[in-house]
Amino acid sequence: MARTLKRSNAPIFWLLFGAGGLIAALIGPMLVYLSGIGGPLGIGVPEGMMSYPRMLAFSQHWAGKLFLFVVTTLILWHAALRIYHTLHDLGFHTGKVLTSSLYGLTLIFTLIAAYALLSVSF
Amino acid sequence: MSEQRMSAQRPYIRSTDGWWRDNPYYVRYMLREFSSLLVYAYGLVLLVGLVRLSQGEAAYDQWLEALRNPWALAFHGVMLLVLLYHTWSWFEIMPKTLPAIRLGGKRLSDGAINVIGLAAALVCCAALYGVALWLAR
Questions:
Q1: CA distance A64 to B85
Q2: Which chain B residues touch A80 with a CB distance below 8 Å?
Protein backbone atom coordinates (compact mmCIF):
# COMPACT_ATOMS: atom_id res chain seq x y z
CA MET A 1 0.00 0.00 0.00
CA ALA A 2 1.50 3.29 -1.10
CA ARG A 3 -0.65 5.46 1.11
CA THR A 4 0.13 5.49 4.80
CA LEU A 5 -2.88 5.01 7.00
CA LYS A 6 -3.68 8.07 9.01
CA ARG A 7 -5.26 8.06 12.41
CA SER A 8 -8.95 8.87 12.08
CA ASN A 9 -10.30 11.99 13.78
CA ALA A 10 -13.81 10.47 13.89
CA PRO A 11 -13.66 9.35 17.56
CA ILE A 12 -13.29 12.99 18.68
CA PHE A 13 -16.52 14.00 16.98
CA TRP A 14 -18.30 10.86 18.16
CA LEU A 15 -17.24 11.60 21.72
CA LEU A 16 -18.58 15.17 21.49
CA PHE A 17 -21.76 13.83 19.87
CA GLY A 18 -22.23 11.26 22.63
CA ALA A 19 -21.55 13.70 25.46
CA GLY A 20 -23.91 16.31 23.98
CA GLY A 21 -26.55 13.69 23.28
CA LEU A 22 -26.41 12.35 26.82
CA ILE A 23 -26.64 15.83 28.35
CA ALA A 24 -29.54 16.70 26.03
CA ALA A 25 -31.29 13.43 26.91
CA LEU A 26 -30.84 14.00 30.65
CA ILE A 27 -31.71 17.70 30.99
CA GLY A 28 -32.70 18.89 27.47
CA PRO A 29 -36.48 19.17 27.98
CA MET A 30 -36.09 21.09 31.26
CA LEU A 31 -33.35 23.28 29.80
CA VAL A 32 -35.57 24.30 26.86
CA TYR A 33 -38.46 24.99 29.21
CA LEU A 34 -36.34 27.16 31.50
CA SER A 35 -34.42 29.05 28.81
CA GLY A 36 -37.10 29.41 26.16
CA ILE A 37 -40.58 29.26 27.72
CA GLY A 38 -40.76 29.48 31.52
CA GLY A 39 -37.79 31.82 31.92
CA PRO A 40 -38.72 34.53 29.38
CA LEU A 41 -42.42 34.47 30.37
CA GLY A 42 -41.92 33.97 34.10
CA ILE A 43 -44.20 30.91 34.19
CA GLY A 44 -43.49 28.25 36.79
CA VAL A 45 -40.30 30.02 37.90
CA PRO A 46 -39.59 32.96 40.23
CA GLU A 47 -40.06 36.44 38.76
CA GLY A 48 -36.91 37.69 37.07
CA MET A 49 -35.12 34.32 37.07
CA MET A 50 -33.52 35.24 33.76
CA SER A 51 -32.96 38.92 34.60
CA TYR A 52 -29.61 40.47 33.66
CA PRO A 53 -28.20 40.76 37.22
CA ARG A 54 -29.10 37.12 38.00
CA MET A 55 -27.70 35.70 34.76
CA LEU A 56 -24.59 37.86 35.02
CA ALA A 57 -23.94 36.59 38.54
CA PHE A 58 -24.54 33.01 37.37
CA SER A 59 -22.12 33.40 34.46
CA GLN A 60 -19.46 34.95 36.73
CA HIS A 61 -19.40 31.96 39.05
CA TRP A 62 -17.01 29.26 37.83
CA ALA A 63 -19.69 26.55 38.07
CA GLY A 64 -22.26 28.63 36.19
CA LYS A 65 -19.68 29.51 33.56
CA LEU A 66 -18.73 25.86 33.11
CA PHE A 67 -22.39 24.80 32.90
CA LEU A 68 -23.27 27.44 30.27
CA PHE A 69 -20.16 26.63 28.20
CA VAL A 70 -20.58 22.85 28.31
CA VAL A 71 -24.31 22.89 27.60
CA THR A 72 -24.16 25.43 24.76
CA THR A 73 -21.15 23.99 22.93
CA LEU A 74 -21.95 20.29 23.37
CA ILE A 75 -25.47 20.84 21.97
CA LEU A 76 -23.84 22.41 18.90
CA TRP A 77 -21.29 19.57 18.49
CA HIS A 78 -23.98 16.95 18.99
CA ALA A 79 -26.17 18.54 16.31
CA ALA A 80 -23.19 19.08 13.97
CA LEU A 81 -22.39 15.37 13.77
CA ARG A 82 -26.04 14.56 13.20
CA ILE A 83 -26.31 17.18 10.43
CA TYR A 84 -23.19 15.66 8.85
CA HIS A 85 -24.83 12.21 8.78
CA THR A 86 -28.16 13.64 7.56
CA LEU A 87 -26.36 15.25 4.61
CA HIS A 88 -24.68 11.92 3.93
CA ASP A 89 -28.09 10.18 3.99
CA LEU A 90 -29.38 12.72 1.47
CA GLY A 91 -26.58 11.81 -0.92
CA PHE A 92 -24.29 14.80 -0.45
CA HIS A 93 -20.66 13.95 -0.81
CA THR A 94 -19.52 14.45 2.72
CA GLY A 95 -15.91 15.05 1.79
CA LYS A 96 -13.28 17.35 3.22
CA VAL A 97 -14.97 20.64 2.28
CA LEU A 98 -18.31 19.87 3.91
CA THR A 99 -16.75 18.29 6.99
CA SER A 100 -14.33 21.11 7.59
CA SER A 101 -16.97 23.81 7.05
CA LEU A 102 -19.44 22.16 9.42
CA TYR A 103 -16.93 21.34 12.13
CA GLY A 104 -14.93 24.53 11.48
CA LEU A 105 -18.03 26.65 11.99
CA THR A 106 -18.86 24.77 15.18
CA LEU A 107 -15.31 25.27 16.42
CA ILE A 108 -15.64 29.03 15.78
CA PHE A 109 -18.93 29.05 17.74
CA THR A 110 -17.19 27.16 20.56
CA LEU A 111 -14.46 29.81 20.69
CA ILE A 112 -17.07 32.60 20.64
CA ALA A 113 -18.85 30.97 23.61
CA ALA A 114 -15.53 30.72 25.48
CA TYR A 115 -14.67 34.35 24.68
CA ALA A 116 -18.10 35.64 25.77
CA LEU A 117 -17.96 33.70 29.04
CA LEU A 118 -14.39 34.74 29.83
CA SER A 119 -15.14 38.40 29.08
CA VAL A 120 -17.87 38.54 31.77
CA SER A 121 -14.99 37.92 34.24
CA PHE A 122 -15.12 35.79 37.37
CA MET B 1 -20.98 -5.81 -11.82
CA SER B 2 -20.51 -7.04 -15.40
CA GLU B 3 -18.52 -5.18 -18.03
CA GLN B 4 -21.55 -4.73 -20.29
CA ARG B 5 -23.51 -2.76 -17.72
CA MET B 6 -20.57 -0.64 -16.60
CA SER B 7 -19.62 0.76 -19.98
CA ALA B 8 -17.09 3.58 -19.99
CA GLN B 9 -19.45 5.92 -21.84
CA ARG B 10 -22.42 5.56 -19.55
CA PRO B 11 -21.48 4.38 -16.12
CA TYR B 12 -24.46 3.20 -14.11
CA ILE B 13 -25.02 5.44 -11.12
CA ARG B 14 -27.73 4.34 -8.77
CA SER B 15 -29.93 7.28 -7.80
CA THR B 16 -30.33 7.79 -4.07
CA ASP B 17 -32.81 10.67 -4.39
CA GLY B 18 -35.64 10.37 -1.92
CA TRP B 19 -34.79 6.78 -0.94
CA TRP B 20 -36.45 7.32 2.40
CA ARG B 21 -39.83 8.59 1.17
CA ASP B 22 -41.51 5.27 0.39
CA ASN B 23 -41.05 3.59 3.75
CA PRO B 24 -42.76 4.99 6.87
CA TYR B 25 -39.87 3.71 9.00
CA TYR B 26 -37.36 5.71 6.98
CA VAL B 27 -39.67 8.77 6.94
CA ARG B 28 -39.65 8.74 10.75
CA TYR B 29 -35.89 8.22 10.69
CA MET B 30 -35.37 11.22 8.41
CA LEU B 31 -37.76 13.42 10.41
CA ARG B 32 -35.62 12.65 13.44
CA GLU B 33 -32.48 13.36 11.43
CA PHE B 34 -33.84 16.71 10.19
CA SER B 35 -34.52 17.73 13.80
CA SER B 36 -30.72 18.04 14.17
CA LEU B 37 -31.04 21.40 12.36
CA LEU B 38 -33.47 22.58 15.04
CA VAL B 39 -31.14 21.36 17.78
CA TYR B 40 -28.26 23.30 16.19
CA ALA B 41 -30.51 26.38 15.98
CA TYR B 42 -31.34 26.03 19.68
CA GLY B 43 -27.61 25.88 20.47
CA LEU B 44 -27.19 29.11 18.49
CA VAL B 45 -30.01 30.80 20.46
CA LEU B 46 -28.11 29.96 23.65
CA LEU B 47 -24.82 31.15 22.11
CA VAL B 48 -26.35 34.49 21.10
CA GLY B 49 -27.63 34.79 24.67
CA LEU B 50 -24.10 34.33 26.03
CA VAL B 51 -22.70 36.92 23.62
CA ARG B 52 -25.46 39.43 24.46
CA LEU B 53 -24.90 38.80 28.17
CA SER B 54 -21.23 39.70 27.74
CA GLN B 55 -22.22 42.92 25.92
CA GLY B 56 -24.13 44.40 28.84
CA GLU B 57 -27.62 44.88 30.20
CA ALA B 58 -29.22 46.64 27.20
CA ALA B 59 -27.98 43.97 24.76
CA TYR B 60 -29.07 41.12 27.04
CA ASP B 61 -32.54 42.59 27.62
CA GLN B 62 -33.03 42.82 23.84
CA TRP B 63 -32.26 39.10 23.56
CA LEU B 64 -34.63 38.27 26.43
CA GLU B 65 -37.35 40.39 24.83
CA ALA B 66 -36.83 38.61 21.50
CA LEU B 67 -37.46 35.28 23.28
CA ARG B 68 -40.95 36.54 24.19
CA ASN B 69 -41.81 36.90 20.51
CA PRO B 70 -44.58 34.41 19.54
CA TRP B 71 -42.31 32.88 16.89
CA ALA B 72 -39.55 32.36 19.43
CA LEU B 73 -42.04 30.77 21.84
CA ALA B 74 -43.39 28.51 19.09
CA PHE B 75 -39.82 27.51 18.23
CA HIS B 76 -39.12 26.58 21.84
CA GLY B 77 -42.44 24.72 22.04
CA VAL B 78 -41.34 22.59 19.09
CA MET B 79 -37.88 22.22 20.67
CA LEU B 80 -39.51 20.94 23.85
CA LEU B 81 -41.24 18.18 21.86
CA VAL B 82 -38.05 17.45 19.90
CA LEU B 83 -36.00 17.08 23.08
CA LEU B 84 -38.66 15.00 24.84
CA TYR B 85 -38.52 12.67 21.85
CA HIS B 86 -34.71 12.79 21.97
CA THR B 87 -34.75 11.75 25.65
CA TRP B 88 -37.16 8.93 24.90
CA SER B 89 -35.24 7.59 21.90
CA TRP B 90 -31.79 8.04 23.49
CA PHE B 91 -32.69 5.67 26.30
CA GLU B 92 -34.79 3.45 24.05
CA ILE B 93 -31.73 2.57 21.95
CA MET B 94 -29.33 2.61 24.91
CA PRO B 95 -29.47 -1.22 25.34
CA LYS B 96 -28.00 -1.42 21.82
CA THR B 97 -25.31 1.23 22.38
CA LEU B 98 -24.06 -0.05 25.75
CA PRO B 99 -21.95 -3.15 26.24
CA ALA B 100 -23.90 -5.86 28.06
CA ILE B 101 -24.15 -5.14 31.78
CA ARG B 102 -24.10 -8.15 34.09
CA LEU B 103 -25.51 -8.03 37.58
CA GLY B 104 -25.07 -11.13 39.72
CA GLY B 105 -24.40 -13.30 36.69
CA LYS B 106 -27.56 -12.16 34.90
CA ARG B 107 -27.62 -9.78 31.94
CA LEU B 108 -29.41 -6.52 32.70
CA SER B 109 -32.54 -6.60 30.51
CA ASP B 110 -33.21 -4.03 27.78
CA GLY B 111 -36.36 -2.91 29.55
CA ALA B 112 -34.45 -2.28 32.78
CA ILE B 113 -31.90 -0.11 30.95
CA ASN B 114 -34.75 1.90 29.36
CA VAL B 115 -36.43 2.45 32.71
CA ILE B 116 -33.18 3.37 34.51
CA GLY B 117 -32.28 5.84 31.75
CA LEU B 118 -35.67 7.54 31.71
CA ALA B 119 -35.73 7.67 35.51
CA ALA B 120 -32.26 9.29 35.45
CA ALA B 121 -33.56 11.90 32.98
CA LEU B 122 -36.53 12.61 35.24
CA VAL B 123 -34.23 13.04 38.26
CA CYS B 124 -31.80 15.28 36.32
CA CYS B 125 -34.64 17.48 34.98
CA ALA B 126 -36.11 17.79 38.48
CA ALA B 127 -32.66 18.61 39.87
CA LEU B 128 -32.08 21.30 37.22
CA TYR B 129 -35.49 22.81 38.01
CA GLY B 130 -34.68 22.70 41.72
CA VAL B 131 -31.29 24.38 41.24
CA ALA B 132 -32.89 27.08 39.04
CA LEU B 133 -35.51 27.80 41.70
CA TRP B 134 -32.87 27.80 44.44
CA LEU B 135 -30.59 30.21 42.53
CA ALA B 136 -33.49 32.57 41.79
CA ARG B 137 -34.95 32.45 45.31
A1: 27
A2: 40
pLDDT at A3: 66
Q: Say if residue B36 is in the same domain as residue B60.
A: yes
At residue B107, what are phi and psi to the nearest 5 degrees?
Answer: -75, 130
In a domain, B6, yes or no: no
Question: Does residue B63 sit at the A interface (CB-CB below 8 Å)?
Answer: no
Please tell me which of the candidates A58, A83, A120 has its beta carbon nearest to residue B135: A58
A59–B contact, CB cutoff 8 A: yes
**Residue A112 maps to a domain:** yes
Q: Which residues of A touch B36 (CB under 8 A)?
A: 79, 82-83, 86
Is the pLDDT score of A89 beyond 90? no
Rounded to 5°, the CA angle A56-A60-A64 comes to: 95
| Least confident piece of the model among A21-30, B40-49, B92-101 | B92-101
- Cα distance between residue B91 and residue A85, in whole Å: 20
Q: Residue B46: list chain A partners with CB under 8 A.
A: 35, 68, 71-72, 75
Q: Which range marks the domain in which residue B57 is found?
A: 19-97
pLDDT on residue A58: 95
What ipTM was estimated for this complex? 0.91
Q: What is the CATH number of the domain that holds A104?
A: 1.20.1300.10
Helix, strand or coil, per DSSP, at residue B69: coil
